[in-house]
Structures are given as C-alpha cells and as structure tokens.
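Chapter summary example.
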Amino acid sequence: GKSSEKMLLFAKLQDELFHPKLDTNKETDKYARQFGVVFMKAMLQELQDPLKVTSKYLSSLDGKLLHENTSLAEHEALFGKKAVNDDAERTHGAGSRQIQTYTCVNLGKGFGVGHAKIQGDFSREKDGFLYC
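The structure predicted for these 132 residues follows.
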C-alpha cells in the first residue's frame, strides 16, 4: 500500500542523508558538517539564554521546571492540560480554538481579528457559528 511505499522512500532518504551514495551529496558532506556545528552552537545559545523560558527546562542548567525539580502537586495539576503552546502563540490558533470550543467569536477579546478577516473566518457559512 501507500504507507509501505512512503516507508521505503523515507528509508532511502534517511540512508542517503547519513550514508551518501550520490556524488552530489558526497560533495556537500563537508559543508553540511560545518553547518551542523554552527547551527547547534546557535541553538544551544538560544536555548540556554536565561531570559528565555526554555532555559528553565534544561538539565544542563538544573532548570527549576525540570520534572525532578517540581512537586507531585505541580505534576498532578498538569494532568489533562495541553502540552503545546499553539493556542497561546498563534493568534489564528487562538481564534480557531475559540470557534471550535465555544462556536462563537468574542470580538471584544481582539484575538487576531485582522488575521481572521484575511483568512475568511467571518464569512464562513456554518450552522451554529455566532458572533458574540
């Protein structure tokens, strides 16, 4: 089936990435390694920035939000909560979540009204879709 074809293509791609056989890919190996070092240094610097929340989760910095540095009560308080920031970080994601959960848009909240207009969210014809 299609899934086995995709798996085969993925396996071939992965093999070529880590064990290049094509001359074109072999020629870029040196540059890819240099890029990887530069990228990882920049990524570590970004993650370890004490002004960023990510630094609080890193074991290399003994982050205060590591699992072992938080209480059982804190762990239990997170059960059933979303583990991603999609709604919080994307205005359109927050708008979509509002619509999916409450079938209305609270325009007073101002969660990306302009973006929602561009996406055509206000002109959708759907039963139960209200503007609060």
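To summarize the output: The CA atoms of residues 50 and 56 lie 8 Å apart.
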